[in-house]
Design brief:
Pfam families: Peptidase_M20. This is Amidohydrolase. InterPro entries: Amidohydrolase (IPR017439), Aminobenzoyl-glu_utiliz_pB (IPR017145), Bact_exopeptidase_dim_dom (IPR036264), Peptidase_M20 (IPR002933), Peptidase_M20/M20A_hydrolases (IPR052030). By secondary structure, the chain is an alpha/beta fold. It folds into 2 domains: 335 residues, Aminopeptidase; 112 residues, Alpha-Beta Plaits. The chain is built from 13 helices and 12 strands. Strand 1 and strand 2 form a beta hairpin. Helix 1 packs antiparallel against helix 2 and helix 3 crosses helix 12. The longest helix has 25 residues. It is globular. Bound molecules: zinc ion. Zinc ion (ZN) binds next to loops.
């Protein structure tokens, strides 16, 4: 493979992608509302000669863009959704919203999507100079945050013709492949009967009481669930703000996570029963609605090792003094828990050598693939249907928690830009190697089929729930 050519192709266009990610950072659009972000990317890809298909999977802000021909078909999974209430001025180390209450890119999806797109363009450009066999497809995937966009896209068959899918995610560390927890998001809507809380409380039936009892019940359940499971909730409707009115309606959203989809099903059923019990106790009614769900990421050793090999060629990046000074400022206000976690991890997997890493303001090592299950991502749903790999690239100073204003503040910096372009190089190298060595694609499929003998993929989202209904 001609890496020199690939690198020069990436170098020649990188500024355009830095500008694109900055623009998407500015749009900061939430789940299923990524109109400007997806339009900007589609326009760019059309100008680059890609064939764009809009609104795939019946989702207005989802699209695909393909170039090249024949097999293998390599999919790159881009994202561009922002998070609520994280608006933040760039490059400042104090919390300072640009617009109070507005969304912000606290998970770096402006970099994630643009980095995948940058890789797709580089592969297309490379194939123009070195004609070979293979198709590269960039997927614009909406609503990773809470909306499980890719799970709906899997259900609608969007990735059916892909041989391999690749993705990455910006973090404060660089690592090859970790897995994730399966996750279901469920709304519990209680309906009671309103009454004056002082003159005739006996006529009322409180939906808010039901929510409170449900939460108490779930908190008692914690002792009796598997240790790796996670259950968390947010009360999204308290039924009003008048204490002298019995609340006729109330709502709570639960997120139920566990290492495997079947464990999430089992645990969710127990949470449903607690909700039903709370309704019975309070003589209210409960409506249960699963609105989104994510499978765990099925790791693929063939792909993970391939990706890791290319990551070591690119990472860790060399940072300039200015970049390190910049990172130092954010490191100083960051969360020490965040980087000590990485220090412990490095010591555990690299022994004595590992103790030297994660001591500065920027990640200084590339962590090998780990069988760890952390967080949740809808890449999981893709990984059970098409062999997939994803990795993390350091785009923020160590100590920057995900989903924080600190991540938003660093989102347009040169460390973020260069972390993204580094990730794009890894994705492009991996895609091109898969095109040159089809036996790797076959081996990756064998591995996925073998894993599925023990555990079939199941989408937890009910058939009648449409993308964007939540
Ligand atoms: Zn994310």
């Amino acid at each position: 493979m001609d890496f020199e050519l690939l690198d020069s192709l990436i170098q020649s266009k990188k500024e355009q992608f830095w500008e694109m990610s900055d623009q998407i950072w500015g749009f900061a659009e939430m789940r299923f509302k990524e109109d400007q972000s997806s339009r900007l990317q589609m326009e760019f890809l059309r100008n680059e000669g890609f064939t764009v298909e809009e609104g795939i999977g019946d989702i207005p802000t989802a699209f695909s863009a393909r170039a090249g021909s024949g097999r293998p078909v390599i999919g790159l999974l881009g994202e561009y959704d922002a998070l609520p209430k994280l608006s933040q001025e760039a490059d400042v180390t104090v919390k300072k919203p640009l617009a109070e209450g507005a969304p912000g890119h606290g998970c770096g999806h402006h970099l994630l999507g643009t980095g995948c797109l940058e890789a797709a363009v580089a592969v297309k450009d490379y194939l123009l100079e070195h004609p070979g066999q293979g198709t590269i497809v960039y997927f614009g995937c909406p609503a990773e945050e809470g909306g499980a966009g890719k799970a709906f896209m899997v259900r609608e068959g969007c990735f059916k013709d892909c041989d391999i899918c690749l993705a990455w995610h910006p973090y404060s560390a660089t690592f090859a492949s970790v897995s994730s927890l399966a996750n279901a998001r469920i709304i519990y809507r209680f309906t009671g009967k309103s009454a004056h809380a002082a003159t005739s409380p006996y006529l009322g039936r409180s939906a808010l009481d039901a929510v409170e009892l449900m939460n108490v019940g779930c908190n008692y359940m914690r002792e009796h669930m598997i240790p790796d499971a996670r259950v968390h909730y947010a009360v999204t409707d308290t039924g009003g703000d008048a204490p002298n009115v019995v609340q006729a309606h109330a709502e709570v959203i639960y997120s139920v996570r566990a290492p495997r989809v079947d464990q999430v099903c089992e645990l969710a059923e127990r949470v449903h029963n607690i909700a039903r019990g709370a309704a019975l106790m309070t003589e209210t009614k409960v409506e249960i609605q699963v609105v989104s769900a994510y499978a765990d990421v099925l790791q693929n050793k063939v792909l993970d090792n391939l990706v890791y090999g290319h990551m070591k060629e690119i990472f860790p990046l060399d940072y300039s003094h200015e970049e390190l000074d910049y990172a130092e400022k954010f490191h100083a206000v960051g969360d020490p828990g965040d980087w000590t976690l990485y220090q412990t991890m490095a010591a555990k997997i690299m022994g004595e050598n590992g103790k030297a890493f994660f001591r500065g303001a920027m990640a200084d090592v590339c962590v090998p693939p780990l069988p760890l299950k952390q967080g949740s991502t809808d890449v999981g749903d893709v990984s059970w249907n098409v062999p997939s790999a994803w990795f993390g690239s350091a785009c923020f100073a160590l100590g920057t928690p995900a989903h924080s204003w600190l991540a938003v503040a660093q989102g347009k910096s040169s460390i973020a830009h260069r972390g993204m372009t580094g990730a794009a190089s890894v994705l492009a190298r991996t895609a091109l190697e898969l095109m040159e060595r089809p036996e790797l694609v076959e081996a990756a499929w064998e591995e996925m089929k073998e894993a599925k003998k023990n555990c079939e993929y199941r989408c937890l989202i009910p058939e009648d729930v449409r993308a964007g209904s939540f």
